[in-house]
Amino acid sequence: MTLVGLHHPGTSLLHRIPAGGKFLMLLGFALLVVLLPEPVHQLGLVVGVCVAYGFAQIPPARCLHVAKVALPLVAFVFLIQWWLLDLERAEVVSLRILAAIGAANLFTLTTRIDDLITAVERGLRPLDRFGVQPERLGLLVGLTLQAVAAVSSIARETREAQRARGIQGSVSAFAIPLMVRTVRHSDELGEALAARGIGDD
Q1: Does the keyword Lyase apply (predicted)?
Q2: Please, what's the largest Cα pairwise distance for the chain?
Q3: Could you say which DSSP state residue 177 is in?
């Protein structure tokens, strides 16, 4: 399975760490994000993620793409939290989201989807005796990540088409084509899975 739009090929140490080990590192990082209570701690995690991007030799254009998606969301959450609660909690929540999104994106950039699926299947193999189907869950992980990449690509293409037509400010001109193309992609994916007999049993 080839996943266009997520993995960035490279030879850094982060690229070479096995997918299973890297996934456990991501879970550990997420635990720190949840448990550390102070804004300065969360700021340290964000700085650490930024350093890791440089360490993994991710091109600035890919980092900028992530920032364009994450920063408006974080800014919105910050303003809502500040309005409803207080400044310190708004800082903590916003920095938590920023650190989590950055780390998760870095994981997908440095991990091939095939390696992740294999790691999931291998890790869940001992649960086979309890009725767990590792292959199905591995496929689910792969399809989920592929769906994220596909919707992101459709949104970017729709935005570019909207810009070319000079109607950047129209919400309906963006939302309707995005929904139509997303549903069409889902139908094509469903037909492809059905053609391979997946989901028949």
Answers
A1: no
A2: 58
A3: H
Note the pLDDT of residue 151. 75
Enumerate the H helices of the chain as residue ranges. 13-16, 19-35, 39-55, 60-84, 87-109, 113-124, 134-164, 171-195
Ranges of residues in the chain whose predicted pLDDT is under 70: 1-5, 196-201
How far apart are alpha carbons 64 and 69 in whole angstroms? 9
Please give the pLDDT value at position 3: 38
Asked if 3 contacts 145 with a C-beta cutoff of 8 angstroms, the reply is yes
C-alpha separations of 112 from 27, 30, 74, 83 in Å: 18, 20, 27, 41
Q: Is 20 within 8 Å of 119 (Cβ atoms)?
A: yes
Sign for the pseudo-dihedral over CA of 91, 93, 97, 99: positive
Residue found under tokens 């989901």:
199
Whether 81 and 89 have beta carbons less than 8 Å apart is answered as yes
Residue 169 has φ and ψ, to the nearest 5°, of: -85, -5
Task: Give the pLDDT score at 157.
Answer: 81
Q: What is the pLDDT of residue 148?
A: 72
| CB-CB neighbours of 57 under 10 Å | 13
pLDDT digits 0-9 by tens, 73-127: 888 889 988 998 899 999 999 999 999 988 988 998 898 888 888 888 888 888 8
Q: What is the pTM of this model?
A: 0.72
